[in-house]
Amino acid sequence: MNDIRKPKSFGSASSAATSTSMTPKQIRLINQSFALMSPKADAIPRIFYNRLFQLEPALRKMFPESLEEQGRKLMQMIGTAIGLLGRADQLIPALEALGRRHAGYGVRDEHYETVGTALLWTVEQELGPAFTPDVREAWTQLYLIVATTMREAATPQLAASAEDFVCR
Ligand code: HEM
How do residues 105-133 score in pLDDT, each as one tens digit? Predict the structure, then answer.
């Protein structure tokens, strides 16, 4: 369970075939599993950052020394994204602005894959048996939507499909 080896790949965040929509069932699974994790919301960022810096120690220097405030913002942003899943018109501009700020933090394209791997691993640890294949797929899809929208805004020449984002 606590395998710390670097997984080969989080997924294909750069795949052109990536779907940018989530089904109502996936949205429901995300909401349910986020609610299951909320009692431990304070501990989750620490688990996430430990895993992230285990996977890619060089990323540590990008972040401030204290990760407490940072972790709070991250959880808040994930919660915001989940809350706005059915409202792409509000979610997309918020993620685009976040993506542009991230370019300013020195975040590059490839970092998104490592962060996605650490995030999925953290959700898996927290949910245990509730992390079913369907739940994994829903979180993978959520992260792909968030990361793709952020990356495209940070790299204008990639921008093409953010407008295609739909919640069915
Ligand atoms: C894709 C999902 C991500 C989300 C939802 C997210 C969320 C956030 C939020 C909410 C902040 C607070 C500052 C702000 O709003 O601009 C932040 C800051 C930051 N994030 Fe992310 N982030 C993501 C991906 C990444 C990636 C891939 C990296 C690369 C390692 C990264 C590195 C940072 C850094 C360095 C800061 C600024 C720390 C500081 O100087 O205070 N983030 N992130």
Answer: 999 999 999 999 999 999 999 999 999 99
In a domain, 155, yes or no: yes
Report CA(108)–ligand 1 centroid distance (Å).
11
Task: Kindly report, residue by residue over 12-40, the tens digit of the pLDDT.
Answer: 443 333 456 889 999 999 999 999 998 88
- Residue 119 domain boundaries: 21-167
Testing ligand 1's pocket by substitution, the residue of 60, 74, 146, 155 carrying the most ligand atoms inside 8 A of its CB is: 74
- Could you give the number of structural domains in the chain? 1
- Residues 116/13, Cβ–Cβ less than 8 Å: yes
Ligand 1 midpoint to CA 32 (Å):
24
Asked, for residue 124, whether it belongs to a domain, the answer is: yes
Instruction: Say if 111 falls within a structural domain.
Output: yes
pTM: 0.84
Burial 46-85 (b: 16+ CB within 10 A, else e): ebbbebbbebbeebeeeeeeebeeebeebbeebeebbebb
Does any domain span residue 11? Answer: no
CB 62 near ligand 1, within 6 Å: yes
* CATH for 78: 1.10.490.10
